[in-house]
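Bench log. Compound arrived from synthesis this morning; before running ITC I wanted a structural hypothesis for how zinc ion sits in the protein. Inputs:
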Amino acid sequence: MLTFAPSSDSAAASTFVSTRATSERSPFIFVGERLWLDFVNCEQGVRRFDALRDFETMVRWLEAASLLDGERAAGIRRRAQQQPAGAAAALIDARRVRSALRSLAERGPMSDRIRAEGLIEINRVLGRSAGTRRVELRGDGTFIRSFVPVGDAFAGLVIPIVESAADALILGELVRVRRCADPRCQRVFYDNTKNGRRRWCDMSTCGNRAKAARHREKLKAH
Ligand SMILES: [Zn+2]
């Protein structure tokens, strides 16, 4: 998932969109530069599509984020048909995790209390599931953690996401987590630019709108 910014500033804008950016038909957007931030942003995908609308859309997001391959996704879908109550509970839990991670992303940098609450939530999820942790090589040459749960298949679904948030705490990355400068946009991202001045979630949407607005202002001034 990590993309490395080329050195020239003019090229930096293009790195705002992750290499596995949304395909034409996918309603999901991956601009957070960190898995846990992409998960926070899954509430506001393309045309405000919420990936946690139902269990099936959640599985589709996990596939789009390369957390489930086709085979495991099919297994999860079968399990969801057999255990609809378990699937519904997993969805509700994922929403709870997402909302805790949003607090951590938006207010964690400023607040000891929010960081402590985020930590409790992270450990709640990490502590409940046993399984095998692996690192997988993806098609685009990047690496991602994966987790194959034993026992409750649903409980493990958000583990790699929560581990990504744990990494952010361990590596001290919260200070570089920002919210998009467009007040109408709720997306968050990890600012990995050299100068630490990335402002927009995505240059092709919010960044472009801001540029167009500045242009209009300039025309008015003349
Ligand atoms: Zn935005």
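What the model suggests: The pocket of zinc ion is lined by residues 180, 182, 185, 187, 200-202, 206 (CB under 6 Å). The chain has one domain: 9-221.
ITC booked for Thursday regardless.
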